[in-house]
Design brief:
20 helices; mainly alpha; single chain
């Protein structure tokens, strides 16, 4: 089977899966009389609150979290959804308040998908695909399970993936832009753990300076908008959110993609789970450092750092995985050569479908295992290239 034929078969299978999944999803929503958008009310309601000049205390109201932790939350009362994001995140959400719910949902998905596609298509892993395969690249990206579950949940995975990919892709060519992207990614800081490693390995002072100044500007802007009291209010809210999650280890089970959360779900004591996660972060940082010090193959370097970033995150969900389309493209481009290792294709397929498998086996760290398998193969390829 030629590369193009296999690519078309993969695209057809992804399309069939998407049609079936979306049909089931729509049927469930209609049957339960609930509106589309998954987690989007989290962002939509905060946008409305900012536009109506609500206080930080109301935006970060801990009462629903405390009720959830105590098992007394009344879902019929339409409680305020959890929002464990820093106050400067609100500066980007207020325009949603100008729209109706479904219009805002459309704007949210359209803009986030456009940014994600732009960042992905500018990465060397996408550009190195053969021209006859690039003709199908956009439907391949959007129909893949890595992207589909973010579309269904209307989470911020496209935004964070765009920022993470851009920060890594631009780190050497446009370090100031990379630093700005890294700072913006602190809305979900667990996804940015490997970026300081990358910048330090590159001795990239410009990116570090841009990231620091952008973070300072975001903090000052949020302080001016919501008052200095927004920060202790947010920290108190974050403590309540952490307590709510700890009170019910199975709360975030279905779309979990982190080893740390899987260990807690399966009953491992938190100190041991933290120690294991610390080892995972150290191993991911080592692979990131190794890749960052290798100037030869940019697409391989980016694939390793992106995969390591998701592995290192102690809290990551399947809707946070769209950035992994870059290692998928890298492995797809190389695994089909006759002289290459055939198991790279299997690893790529495993990573591509891991969000589906994780949904059906939520207690097992399937998505994490898929990421680790790909990272090991990518690092092996890097070491082979260095020794050649």
């Amino acid at each position: 089977m030629t590369k193009t034929a296999l690519y078309r078969v993969l695209l057809l299978l992804l399309a069939l899966h998407s049609v079936v999944y979306l049909d089931i999803y729509a049927h469930d929503k209609l049957a339960s009389h609930s509106r589309l958008g998954g987690d989007f009310p989290t962002f939509f309601k905060r946008g409305q609150m900012v536009l109506s000049h609500a206080s930080a205390a109301n935006i970060y109201d801990t009462a629903p979290l405390d009720a959830q932790a105590a098992g007394t939350l009344d879902l019929a009362a339409d409680p305020l959804p959890p929002f464990p994001y820093p106050p400067y995140t609100l500066l980007f959400l207020w325009p949603l308040g100008f729209f109706s719910y479904h219009a805002a949902l459309g704007v949210w998905l359209t803009i986030s998908a456009a940014l994600y596609l732009c960042a992905t298509l500018k990465n060397p892993a996408s550009q190195n695909l053969p021209s006859n395969m690039r003709a199908y690249i956009i439907p391949f990206i959007l129909l893949s399970p890595l992207a589909l579950y973010n579309i269904v949940t209307a989470q911020n995975g496209f935004f964070t993936a765009a920022l993470l990919i851009a920060a890594i892709t631009l780190s050497q060519r446009r370090p100031y832009a990379a630093g700005i992207c890294a700072a913006l990614l602190t809305v979900k800081p667990q996804l940015a753990l490997m970026l300081p490693v990358l910048f330090l390995a590159q001795k990239n002072g410009k990116a570090v300076l841009a990231a620091a100044l952008t973070c300072l500007a975001l903090v000052l802007a949020a302080t001016l908008q919501f008052g200095p009291g927004c920060w202790p209010i947010f920290l108190s809210y974050l403590a309540s959110f952490t307590h709510m999650v700890a009170a019910d280890p199975g709360l975030l089970t279905q779309m979990n993609a982190s080893l740390y959360r899987s260990l807690l779900i399966n009953g491992l004591p938190q100190p041991i789970a933290l120690a294991v996660q610390g080892f995972v972060i150290a191993a991911a940082a080592a692979s990131c450092w190794l890749a960052a010090r290798n100037p030869a193959d940019a697409s391989l370097r980016h694939a390793i750092i992106l995969t390591a970033s998701l592995i290192a995150a102690p809290h990551v969900m399947t809707y946070d995985m769209p950035a992994l389309i870059i290692p998928v493209f890298y492995l797809l481009n190389h695994a089909l050569r006759a002289t290459e290792r055939p198991y790279e294709l299997l690893a790529m397929l495993f990573l591509l479908v891991s969000p589906i498998l994780a949904l059906h086996s939520p207690q097992l760290p399937i998505a994490f295992a898929a990421m680790v398998a790909c990272l090991l193969l990518l690092v092996l390829r890097l070491k082979t290239a260095q020794n050649a």
